[in-house]
Give the backbone structure.
Amino acid sequence: MKKKSKAVLESAGWIDSHCHFDFPDFDLDRDQEWQLAQQQGICGLIIPGISRQQGQGLAALCQPRPWLYALGLHPYFLSQHQQTDLDWLDAALHQARGSDDGLVAVGEFGLDFRKHTSDAERRAQLELFDAQLQLAKQHRLPVILHGVGAHDQIAAAIRRTGFAHGGVVHAFNGSEQQARRYLDLGFKLGLGGLYLSDRALKLQRTVDALPVDSWLLETDAPDMTPRMWPQRRNSPRLIPLLADHLAQAKGISTAELQSLQRDSLTSLLIL
């Protein structure tokens, strides 16, 4: 494991495993928000990539801070991606593998069948998904997956390609059967603000049914803000509240949960 990743994972505190802290929503007060997050016990972030344009700035943003990052082409922005973006991604992954700037995964990529519903759009998504999964396999990196209405197709593609480097399924809200399928494939499941909703009964049942180390805490900030959060913009500061709820549901201490979270991330991000 590279020195920067190792240092972040060995720090005392919580890591937000999926946070878009580079988004313009934080441009006016990013440093102040990070200071507040640190005061709440947050010691690191993983910032996913969503496009070539956005991904090109992640290394510089993360370099002086305990923030790790991934590079990928998000399915939601399908119309923006070009074949040359895959070429860029391949070259960027190769370059980052030779440095210690905090690259830890390929992603966020996947399938979003709620956003894109036509056969042509879904075929294009599948092609983009397969190409990025192959790049992750080639570069021996874990992945950060986005899946909406397509968990069966994602799991099938992972099996079909023989991808075996694991990763996390961001904001998982599928069935228990689908969750167990991902776990069998070596993946963790992202757990965010939806878990705090009184209406998220299916997710809460799935959390109860699975081992506590199946889950990685995340916020997706600035998005996926839970209703009880006092601000419209989500924040890494939500992580301790998520941790309290998960630890209570599993009958363990938050200190034990924090150790399990660190172990899970370490096992995924060994490079």
